[in-house]
Specification:
539 residues; six-stranded antiparallel β-sheet; metal-binding; Chitinase A, domain 3; rotamase; 32% strand; signal; alpha+beta; disordered C terminus; 5 domains
Length: 539
């Protein structure tokens, strides 16, 4: 004669129990005491949805549901006076029938409920939180109150990307995402009237269902955002800052806002080399690389509309905010020339280096970031060249001009006057600016341009006969070489310094051997000033 309630399963966690006025969704089996079943929500494939304590249920069920937790199972015995009484339900429930119900509570909410937010992880640093009109990227697991999974972005291996607060989401999610930090994890519980309401979504979510979203926020930006720059290291000495049109070499680590690494120049052991301000890189990087110093380290945060947009690229998902931690190795402009800084010049500086002079000098060669490339000091010997003869890069030929013995200077050479885009494999990176610290130790004056040999005195009027020692009217290479060697040894002539004797002599002989037969005749033999006069007369 009395209501009987047996709690057959009670979950460990019961944050909320049914109270009069709550709306519940539950499954049940209805049977008579002899076990005969008269009704089942399972057979209909949908829960029974109803307000409790408002007379929408038989009195015994109204009482039996109070205090239940979601996922709790109760066995309920309801006497006739709290069920259908002496009248019963024709064809279904006989008069004065005792009813047994096996009840499983699936869902529970109240019309006064609001969105519930439970944060269970929050990063120590939270520079920015979600605001109305922000665009977010997040992962979620969506379940009902009983824990049944109805959807998961993790299963699709793709974040859910959307604007917040402008009606693109259900109202409860619009509210639940506000104030989140990137990296934060929270559980958002949404009553149905702030979710999919009475009708559900027509697919996985039934009508009147409370929804629980376990959310982790991965990304956050606003369409009005520009790039953000955080200076991490700025060298004290910064003589020059990058401008539009400069060519920059830099290292970087590229990550998403949640810290996921998507690219790194360090892993390739090669700088990223590009012009800036000309559209060779994404717009945000074009802007972020302006105004940097060589050696500077900075963080550049780029919103997707200045990055790779909605489509993304490779490992970069669509609508992703990008973080680049960069280290500027060097930069130059294609219009740059050689830069010379003199550190010391002797007071008796009367003889200056010029094209054709033979120079001996020490140097330390480095990159703009200070990386040492080479040093003659470590080799224990000088570097020796003929200035202007193409034995060194063009920038060094320029940097060694007008130098006196004992002078020390720093020569900065842009790559187009150095080793160019290719560099020197294993030694000099491509497109690298080079820095040479130079000390000139010795200078041997060269010959006038175009000359490999000159006389120190008057030229013999019988020059050919003197060279033709056997007087056969022909001069062979051996005779020619022996004669030139004698003139140099006796001080009567001078060879261009810094070149191989045999190569110079052979070159001089070949110039005289006009028919190429390996012999020079008197008719072929001419001095350089005689050649110039004949050419002038012909013109």
């Amino acid at each position: 004669t009395e209501l009987g309630v047996e709690r057959r399963f009670v979950p460990e966690s019961c944050p909320r129990a049914v109270r009069p006025g709550d709306f519940v969704r539950y499954h049940y089996l209805g049977a008579f005491p002899d076990g005969t079943r008269f009704d089942s929500s399972y057979d209909r494939g949908s829960t029974f949805n109803v307000f409790v304590g408002k007379g929408q249920l038989i009195a015994g069920m109204d009482q039996a549901l109070v205090g239940m937790c979601v996922n709790e199972r109760r066995f309920v015995k309801i006497p006739p006076k709290l069920a259908y009484g002496s009248e019963g339900v024709p064809g279904v429930i006989p008069p004065n029938a005792v009813l047994h119900f096996d009840v499983l509570l699936i869902d529970l909410w109240n019309s006064e409920d609001e969105v519930q937010v439970q944060t269970y992880f929050k990063p120590e640093k939270c520079p920015r939180t979600v605001q109305v009109s922000d665009f977010v990227r997040y992962h979620y697991n969506g379940t009902f109150l009983d824990g049944t999974l109805f959807d998961s972005s993790h299963n699709r291996m793709r974040t859910y990307d959307t604007y917040v607060g402008i009606g693109w989401l259900i109202a409860g999610m619009d509210q639940g995402l506000l104030g989140m930090c990137v990296g934060e994890k929270r559980i958002i519980t949404i009553p149905p009237f702030l979710a999919y309401g009475e009708d559900g979504d027509g697919k996985e979510i039934p009508g009147q269902a409370s929804l629980v979203f376990d959310v982790v926020l991965l990304d956050l930006h606003n369409p009005k955002d520009g790039i953000a720059i955080e200076n991490q290291l700025v060298p004290e000495a910064c003589e020059r800052r990058s401008q539009t049109g400069d060519f920059v070499r830099y290292h970087y680590n590229g990550t998403l806002l949640d810290g996921t690494l998507f690219d790194s120049s360090y892993s390739r052991n090669h700088t990223y080399d590009t012009y800036i301000g000309k559209g060779y890189v994404i717009a945000g990087m074009d802007e972020g690389l302006l105004g940097v110093c060589t050696g500077e380290k900075r963080r550049i945060i780029i919103p997707p509309h200045l990055g790779y947009g909605e489509e993304g690229r490779g490992k970069i998902p669509g609508s992703a905010v990008l973080i680049f931690d960069i280290h500027v190795v060097d930069f130059h402009n294609p219009s740059d020339s050689v830069s010379i800084t003199v550190h010391y010049k002797p007071s008796n500086c009367t003889v200056l280096s010029k094209k054709g002079d033979y120079l001996k000098y020490h140097y330390n060669a480095s990159l703009l970031d200070g990386t040492l490339l080479d040093s003659t000091h470590s080799l224990g010997k000088t570097y020796n060249i003929v200035l202007g003869s193409g034995q060194v890069v063009l920038g060094m030929d320029m940097g060694l001009q007008d130098m006196c013995v004992g002078e020390r200077r720093t020569v900065v050479i842009p790559p187009h006057l150095g080793y160019g885009e290719d560099g020197v494999e294993g030694e000099v990176p491509g497109s690298a600016v080079l820095v040479f610290d130079i000390e000139l130790l010795e200078l041997v004056s060269g010959l006038p341009e175009g000359y490999m040999f000159v006389w120190n005195g008057e030229v013999s009027p019988n020059l050919f006969e003197e060279i033709d020692q056997n007087h056969d009217g022909e001069v062979l290479l051996e005779e020619f070489s022996e004669y030139i060697q004698t003139q140099v040894d006796t001080g009567k002539g001078k060879l261009a310094p810094g070149f191989d004797f045999e190569k110079i002599v052979k070159n001089m002989f070949t110039n005289q051997d006009r028919d190429g037969n390996g012999k020079v005749t008197a008719e072929e033999f001419k001095l350089k000033d005689q050649e110039a006069k004949e050419e002038h007369d012909e013109l």
